[in-house]
Design brief:
Layout: H1 4-15, E1 31-33, E2 36-39, E3 43-46, E4 49-50, H2 54-60, H3 67-72, H4 75-84, H5 95-107, H6 117-136, H7 139-159, H8 164-170, H9 172-179, E5 196-199, H10 205-213, E6 218-222, E7 226-231, H11 235-246, H12 255-262, H13 264-271, E8 289-292, H14 298-309, E9 314-322, E10 332-340, H15 341-396
Antiparallel strand pairs: 1-2, 2-3, 3-4, 5-7, 6-7, 8-10, 9-10
Length: 397
Amino acid sequence: MEDEDWVYNRACELNSTVAGFPALPSPPTQVRAGAFSYNNRDGLRAGDFSRASLDDLRLLFRANASSARRRMATKPWITAQLHLYDIPFNKSGGVAELRDTLEAAVKGRKCVEGGPPSVAAVQQQFRAQLARKREEYSYTQEREKHKVDVNAWRKQEFLKLTDPRAEALFDLNLFFSKYFVDDQGLPAPLKTPDPVILRDLCDWSEPLRCRVDGVPGLRARVTRFLTVIAWASEFERGIDDAFAMIGQPRVKADHATREATFDPERFLAKYFLDGLRGKPAPGKRTQLLVLEYWFTSQDSHEKLLQAVKSVPDLLVQPTNKPTPNSDWGCCSKACLIVGWQKFVIPQTKSWATETKLLEVAKAKSEERAKEKAILAKLKPHIDYARTHRSDHTASVA
């Protein structure tokens, strides 16, 4: 199974800002009770408001108070000030009534700068309570609790998925539990008797391969672009189905390269043999197949070479294909050509000659470009010399 800590850390990294994801564990930064809350940065607050100074309150209740100050004095803000100055008020009163109560307290000198002792005592109590909570906080314990919450969240999110590929990318453990193993992690062939085919797992290919290896009786053919998972009795059928999918018109990719990478034996059977692991069929295909070299890994390349060795007169040849119109300025690109020997050898020689001609033409073009660049730099000096030589000739004449 995937390492639980890795899965947990990965889930937090990818989903910490997703709505509904459990909040990450962190030491307590605030305590709250009744109308008050306290944190070490803002001190004591009521609602979401800190205590306003007496000067600010006096400015608010001046006859010529600014409109900005008046707009600031909303019902929640006024209520907070009444709490923070410990002024009795009618909790069901409207904003006008509460404003009058606060104004009367300010003008009647019932508001003490810094707050009354009763509120200072609440602040001291909250400060001590927060300090105690921070001392008692255990990151290890909170992290274990958070793991439980994250696992529950992941299970709920997994249930929303309907595509096996999305399920595998989301959580391999849950994916395997759904399709291939029971609650004890033992093989459960009846859950999914048919092969499962997944496209484009990319970097998740190797973790999936390792997971399959841990389930007795389960087999997989894993590539970055196509993966088959099946029980041993159905594995060959799954490979056949997946191989057929590669050649479908809707697959916008180099079919031959993917076919050779996914299954070299079926690739040879399709183009060069009379059947799977069959006899050579030279008339089946006379044209060469050009495989993209960047797409074939070293492992798949070796498997293709081994498969071709068993077919007389068939060759796999690494070479360079000329690229006369390359956007990258290259004269050729690496590739593999597969075909009958009588076609492969002449083609490689022809491409080598064409590539050489392209390289010579490129060198000449680059040399001309350098000459033009030099002339462009010298042109102002040449024009200056010509102008002054003309002026000098005219003055002599």
